[in-house]
Design brief:
It is a single chain. The protein is α+β, with helices and mostly antiparallel strands. The protein has a domain at 63-169: 3-Layer(aba) Sandwich (Aminopeptidase). 35% of the residues lie in helices and 22% in strands. The chain has helices spanning 24-39, 45-57, 109-123, 138-146, 162-169; strands at 14-18, 64-70, 73-83, 91-100, 126-131. The protein has a five-stranded mixed beta sheet with strand order 1-2-3-4-5, sandwiched between helices. Strand 2 (64-70) and strand 3 (73-83) form a beta hairpin. Helix 1 packs across helix 2. The chain is globular, with a radius of gyration of 17 Å. It starts with 13 loop residues before the first strand and ends in a 6-residue tail after the last helix.
Length: 175
């Protein structure tokens, strides 16, 4: 993926758009960069990134991807959904992931794409903008603190994986 040599603040114009059908290669490249950043080189990563792009851009998807560009180069994304119901039956803008390419970090790209996402939330009448962060990702937590986002300590985040999802799907709930 071609990206600017300098940080995104190098004078290139900043633009965002929601990914569409013609963006499959860009989406796959960004997903692959994300995987490599967090988990290193792995067998099957290219195919997994292509599958991820197809899933995000597919007709049945409820997930969208906001792409951020420095000039013509994609340098960041946010995956999100608008969830209902929220207070007053408005939507809740939920960000699943924010990722900025390594060579675009430190130039304000994260703040720019978060501002663009917030503008979408306002445009679409959402009453809140929620996301999670890994507790040990100090850089991300510090960034979100600088945005004046309130930490939601009264919520607990739950997750099922693999066999536990299958068990629940088979009626394995005790509740």
């Amino acid at each position: 993926m071609k990206t600017p040599e300098n940080r995104a603040g190098n004078g290139l114009p900043w633009t965002t758009r929601i990914a569409g059908e013609g963006d499959a290669e860009i989406v796959a490249d960004l997903l692959l960069a994300t995987d490599r950043h967090y988990w290193g080189e792995q067998d099957g990563a290219v195919d997994a990134a292509r599958r991820g792009a197809s899933a995000i851009l597919g007709e049945a998807s409820t997930c969208r991807m906001l792409l951020g560009f420095a000039g013509d180069a994609p340098v960041a994304y946010i995956t999100f959904s608008v969830l209902y119901p929220a207070p007053n039956q408005d939507g809740a803008f939920f960000m699943k992931d924010l990722f900025v390419l390594e060579n675009a970090r430190g130039g304000g790209v994260g703040g720019k794409i978060m501002a663009a996402a917030a503008a979408l939330a306002v445009e679409w009448g959402c009453c809140r903008f929620d996301w999670t962060a890994e507790k040990d990702n100090r850089r991300a937590v510090a960034f979100y603190d600088r945005l004046s986002a309130r930490r939601v300590e009264e919520k607990i985040y739950f997750r099922l994986t693999g066999p536990d999802i299958a068990r629940l799907a088979q009626g394995g709930a005790d509740g």
